[in-house]
Automatic annotation (TrEMBL):
Pfam families: Ank_2. InterPro entries: Ankyrin_rpt, Ankyrin_rpt-contain_sf. ANK repeats lie at residues 15-47, 108-140, 141-173. It comes from Didymella pomorum. This is Ankyrin.
Length: 273
């Protein structure tokens, strides 16, 4: 109706957002298709360099609240204003059919494949990779889609990216390996067996690929400083150094002695008291 009365379909707000950006952000598939049919600019960048395609996987919330654990808790639904769930894949397909750049990146280097990996949306990831998305895309902080899939934690997404040539030895600017990324849930206070079990499997996959078990991040921490008992013991079996100290000079032996929940068993592995 507004269009019929002369509304500008290509108007921008102060942040560079157009109606197409807003429609993609809010999952309005019918509006997206209408705007595209009228010639809306499919690759115009708005705030933080986000193109309409990049809004398909953008949640806009804090890391610990959003993209970890989507397959289990589904924290970032993609719904239209009427509350109906919309397929991210269908929106992405519409944009790509109209020439969207599948490897467009935000100002900090995040691609739509990074976003799909953060959501653990393997179906969308497959579609994007099949249409030319770069599985080795590197953000400004060194993050790759594989880091994001590991943080999720999505076993299926991790295995798929590795099959497609993702670099399991990529390291971020903070020294974070994909194994560090897989154990990042510790920083969000998560202690759920339904999450910890896949993390152990993901860590095992990376270690089998030769990722350094004793690699340190920018804080001097090895993954042993981040772990649940299950993953911790897996790392010990793979040769992790339990005497490695972080930048504060703390070893895992010292940290565990302070912890009232953990202890060592007779074989030298960690157990819950």
């Amino acid at each position: 109706m507004l269009y019929q009365h002369g509304a500008d379909l290509f108007a921008e707000d102060k942040s560079g957002m157009t109606p197409l950006h807003m429609a993609c952000k809010n999952g309005c598939l019918d509006v997206i298709q209408f705007l595209l049919s009228k010639g809306a600019a499919v690759d115009e960048a708005a705030i933080a360099g986000r193109t309409p395609l990049l809004y398909v996987t953008f949640c806009g919330q804090d890391e610990c609240e959003v993209y970890p654990f989507a397959p289990i808790f589904a924290p970032c639904p993609y719904v239209d204003p009427g509350g109906h769930e919309i397929s991210r894949l269908e929106v992405a397909k519409s944009l790509l059919d109209h020439g969207a750049n599948i490897n467009a990146a935000t100002a900090d280097g995040q691609t739509v494949l990074h976003g799909a990996a953060q959501l653990g949306d393997t179906e969308l990831m497959r579609f994007l990779v099949e249409h030319g998305a770069n599985v080795r895309a590197i953000a400004a902080n060194g993050d790759t889609p594989l880091h994001d899939a590991a943080r999720q934690p999505s076993i299926e997404a991790v295995h798929y990216l590795i099959e497609q040539g993702a670099n399991a030895h990529a390291v971020t600017t903070e020294g974070e390996t994909v194994v560090h990324a897989a154990c990042a849930m510790a920083g969000c206070g998560i202690n759920n067996p339904a999450i910890l079990a896949p993390i152990a499997q993901i860590v095992g996959t990376f270690l089998d690929l030769g990722v350094d078990v004793n690699a340190r991040d920018a804080t001097g921490s090895t993954v042993l400083h981040l772990l649940s008992t299950e993953v911790f013991n897996l790392m010990l079996r793979k040769g992790a150094d339990r005497l490695a100290a972080n930048n504060e000079g703390e070893t895992m032996l010292e940290l565990i002695e302070k912890d009232k929940e953990w202890d060592w068993d007779a074989e030298g592995f960690l157990k819950v008291k």
